[in-house]
Protein 1
Amino acid sequence: MKGIVGYAVRLPAYSISRDEIARAWQCSSPGGQKRCIRFDEDALTLAAAAAQDCLGSLNGLTVTGLLFASTTAPHLERLNSSLIAAVCDLPSACATIDLSSSLRGAASGLLMALSLVNGGQGESILVCAGDTREADLGSAEEMLLGDAGAAIAVGNQNVIAELLATATVYDDFLDTVRRDRDEFITSFASKFSADRGYLAPMQSAIQCALKQAGVTVQQVSKAALSSPDKRSHLQLAKKLGLAESQAQDIRFNDVGLTGSAMPLLVLSGALESAQPGEIILLAAHGNGADALVFRVTENIRNYKVRVPLAKQAAGLAYASYTQYRKARDYYRNVENGLEISNVMYAKEEHQNIRLHGSECYHCGTRQFPVTQVCVSCRRGDQLREIALARTGTVYTFAQDELYPSPFPPTLMAVVDLAGGGRIYCEVVDCSPADVRIGMPVDLTFRKIKEGGGLYHYYWKCCPRRGQ
Amino acid sequence: MSRSLSQEVAVIGVSCTKFGENFDQSLQEMMVEAGTAACQDAGITMDDVQAAWLGTFSPGFGGGKATITLSDALKMRGRPITRVENYCATGTDAFRNAAAAVAAGQYEIVMVLGAEKLRDRAVRGLQREGIHPYLEAGSTAPGLFALFANRYMHTFGTDRRVLAKVAVKNHGNGALNPKAHFQTKVTEEQVLKAQVIAYPFGLYDCCPTTDGAAAAIVCRADLAAHFRKELILLRGAGLAVMSGKPFLDSTVDYLGFPSTTAAAQQAYKQAGISDPVKEVDFCEVHDCFTWTEITNYEDLGFCKKGEGAKFIEEGRSSLTGDVPFNPSGGLKSFGHPVGATGVRMIYEIVTQLRGDAGARQVKDAKLGLAHNLGGPGAVACVVILGREA
């Protein structure tokens, strides 16, 4: 048996009300809110966060591949998936593949991953996605697009949803386009686009997959359908003969249209409430469509998602459109000149990206970063490299108004990691009034600076999620 | 058994430029002013100086990177010059090294000169240079000290008002000092209501960045009588280095600076001091932030850990208290041109011991202590000078 073995979603902590955007542009609002990144997040960090949460629930399966889908990956040349794999501390023999330029990249990634997991037992491949798409400023789409990361792991052990069938169709149809030189999407949103670019390929792929699975539409419990807008997925459900209630919520009202992440986000939502025996349909669009049919297994009862969607409500909101734009454009406008040597990057990758430290055989002290002489017993011959915990508590902190930031103060903390080791990093997704000594935190991988033609990433921390 | 510096070395000349925004002076001009005045104060000429130690911290702007900065400014040619950089403890460590060379008998008369020009750059705060791009990302000087202050205040229940008292006291002393960067008094209310820099530090809880230079002439003790009638001897000098990244060291409790305690113990031992609060007459300490002075009281052994608040509340560190701290106004008010600060402390101690401090004169000043702190407690240097009867 092969199929889904894990899932996770990472919604950014910040949101903005669509009315607030409409107010800035003096236009009408579709209502609701959308989730949006902080200035130190991007498609990669969102996907990496979801990937880590997903891996944390896998119970020791060997990860042999990591696929990353995005249309807004921070690097056009430099493998984004290899950076995410390093953040996840995966072994170097892990296959790493970027899937770009399609909103159905993550679904295509699932097709690919599922065809790759035929091999050994206890093997798993992670498909993660993140998007932070931009539409022309002041356009109707700007209010629709939301940011999110999501991940699905597939494998052949502890399967929570067994794969029954897949299908794919492509269609070189002119719909939403963003060229290499464009910042914003160009959209041909119209009834023709909805019919020909969305409904037709989705129906075709779905019908093909259901037929192969030997499953009738009536047997489908939940349909995780991507959508190019607020409600085309509902129209599709109806056309398929499903009740609107069977179409899984795409989270338009409170998250937005989440691009490459949407298929995985919607599927995760379906899995969170799935019961053994249920048939779940996943279909994603984008110059054609991919469809996958799954049957939920008994293992779903034992699966524990790291942070359920219900516990990911937006904790923080941008009060104005100006703040929202500032958060998105800060690093674009500020080149703060950090240059590093790639020799140093290579030498310190284990500590800076994989969060490795040292443990002393002699006195047992764990410490960060990788060190040559024990900070506690000062012996230099008793240290071994280890992976440190990615949770901890705030030992002390500072609210720094002096450090350059679009939203001062910068919250900095000394964090004692669970099991030992101490790190110094920024506290994010937290209002200054809430930071305190003893606060439980999760480490989170974020951008720290830009400079020398590079994005620089490192660890920060946020209030413990899911509590 | 290591040999003590005590009684071997005398300070026969000191000088200090006006501290502040010295836009009309270059780094070199400040160095010439300080170096020339120190020689005059000692009654010697530049030709009598056999070697020199230069203390500069931030070489990025206006020179200061190497020994040639001093030789080119003062045209001091053909002699040994050593540059010392040890974070904000640069000045006192330059002095300590010069004293050690004189005590070793290598030279008879040497110069220590600290200088820094920080105001030429239109940036707020001290530039953080040469730090790790990831492990220290997001750090500033006030932010790093706020980590300590917050943990300390959380542990001992200290109020921001206590910190404000340090600012009020040191601004008050600075108001009596014609060379201080700030010569205006502030009220507790002003301090508490000022713009926040890094909580618990408001603007008046932070020392400024400053331009300035200071110099001292150090001489073999047995020769000092040739130059000055009063005899001011080095009684002890200690230096202790801890971690520059205390935030990665889980053995650090963030309640104070063990570097200060270690450096003080070295100096006390050399000076034969067993009870500093009774034996030391006054201190010039590193009050880069108001809380730093509170922990200094404790770390230097003038009161127990956690009792620094009481020490200032009882007025013991005020100009008229039993152990005045920072009669000069301290870094808080005199200013903080990094490499110059430690040498400026030596200048203040000597001026007080001579009884030349005017309105800010400490009564019966016979034994003075200078304490310089570098990094977030990474380095501490303590120098004790005494006037012989």
Protein 2
Amino acid sequence: MKGFLRRNIVPIVFLTLCAIGFYYAKMSAAFFVHDLISRLVRNSFIVISLIIPVLAGMGLNFGIVLGAMAGQFGAIFTVFWEIEGFWGFMLSAAISVPLSVLFGWWTGALFNRTKGKEMITGLILSFFANGVYLLICLVLVGWIIPVSEDNAYLLLPGGAGLVNTIDLGIWQYAIDKFFYFKIGIITIPVLPLALTGLLCLWIWHLFRTKLGQDIRAVGQNRHIAEVAGIGVDRVRIISVIFSTVLAAWGQLLFLQNMGSLQTYGSHVQVGTFAVAALLVGGATVNRATVWQALLGILLFHALFIVSPNAGKNLMGSAQIGEFFRVFVAYGIIGVALVLHAWQRKKQ
Amino acid sequence: MPENRIGAWIARVGLPRLIIGVFLIALVAAGIALNLPMDQIVGSMLTRFGMNLLLVLALIPTIQSGSGPNFGLPFGIICGLITATLAIELDLRNFTALAFAVGLAIPMGAFAGWLYGLLLNRVKGQEMTVGTYMGFSIVSLMSIFWLVAPYHSPEMIWPYGGSGLRVTIVLKDRMDQILDKLLAFDIGGIAIPTGLLLFAILCCVGLWLFMRTKTGIAMTIVGSNPRFAEATGLNVNKYRVYGSMISCAMAAVGIIIYSQSFGFLQLYQAPLYMALYMVSAILIGGASLQRATITHAIIGTFLFNGLLVAALPVANEVVPGDISEVVRVIISNGIILYALSRKEEGGYAK
């Protein structure tokens, strides 16, 4: 009993926090469940994408922001070409693959140069990549990169740079409403749930293959893996590529649910919130499972749903709830990193 | 052989310093060619240099004592913001306000740095990651504080009710540019912020003297070789905490100097990425994650801020749209990535 408590202290604390928040938010349970399911399916891929690098011993991959960018490039292309519906979504997912493989490869190569400092490297890399993304989308598009007359409505008034919000109505809900049914007001989107299930199965399967075993071996001890004849650097790059591609698809699933792309904002917090969600589920810097990812999304996003209302009812300001959840996201990552460093020092 | 000599020269100057330096010279040349008001640009370069120098200098104690560049700078910055808002709340003006804010910021910053230093000693090897996220956490926690804190001064709360302090607080008639304007004069149209620069020089001299005291030297030894330091009987953890305390106290004063020159206090999310920009400045100056000198800080602050100041007007002439923020993000994070990926021996700050 005591061991169970200690192992699961983080999810238990969050469950309590969510319960208190839910009580004070005074919202309907059906609405809460509806919102929670939609948040589960739109975040599942991104959070699960973190698992492979964790098991490969690279810690929490803040570099998934690059994957999210690859996904957004895919989305922007389909908007420019006006390819609608299910196939529009599939095309953007397809376009994001070569981009995210390339980004993942670069990230992995950089991580191999900074072994032991992957997390701070990934974090700074995500900021750096955001700068390059801004350079492309805000400065080069329309100035150096030509945009046809028909699509001029996607540019800022000055004639250079994409608009702040791009409407994704052409393939909004392409996956979510592909096949769904309702229980009361609760919508059950079957396809995204099925895709999440498939992804979990694939992760489970991956770690039963040779490659998966190699990833685990590298994660447990790089030097022993090297001696055992595993190409450590190669395995690490492959892990990051997997992670980046999954993050790209995850971002697209997120966008098709939201229905609009905040050109300069949608990707910025992806890393922080995904990492925080995984940690809330009880994962650590070197141990993570699919179940922890799913539980983490549910708990973390439950807090997201209740915190503005709870903040308003408790403290008289919805903004306090907003700041509180941002603080929780950063704080949980900070605490997890402290605990990790602490344990490593003890060993 | 000439190639070798060029290679050696580049190695000595350092690649980042060289690239940014050449870039800056090119921008200034372009500015002159485009007939931009260079006197104003040079004047604001000097001001930006003075504004930022103390915050960049604040990184030296932690780097030298072996905890790496202080990504936990927001701990100190927050203290400075609290004391500056307190000075306004107490209706202080001019030098009284500045002296009060600075005088209170030093012990507060040192206290925050003491707590932060104790934390850093428990996470050796992960200081940068932990520091970054602890910095982010404290900034968002303090955002709640700014919302609920019981301030009453009408200059700071929202004019039509609503809770909390404003996002930016105007310092006009409080301590707006009082150091900048002290003994200020013009040379050929270039406004020299004498007081600000004198204060910056004073800080450099103070830190230089401190690093040569017994404590300062012990800190450097602890940072460059912790095992050796332990063997000679130095208490490694104690000196690392000192480094963090001094760093945060300097950051607390630094943000007040920065704000008085800027003319505004920026609250809420504004300090979030500040540490990153300061770290990149010192790295551009030629510092590494294990070694930094006052010269590095001076050169880096001038190059980085000079570049940003010069980039905006020049870019506006050439490029449609706003590019200066983009340049800032790319350069500052690019330089940190470069420093991270360099293979370095010794030290264990990561």
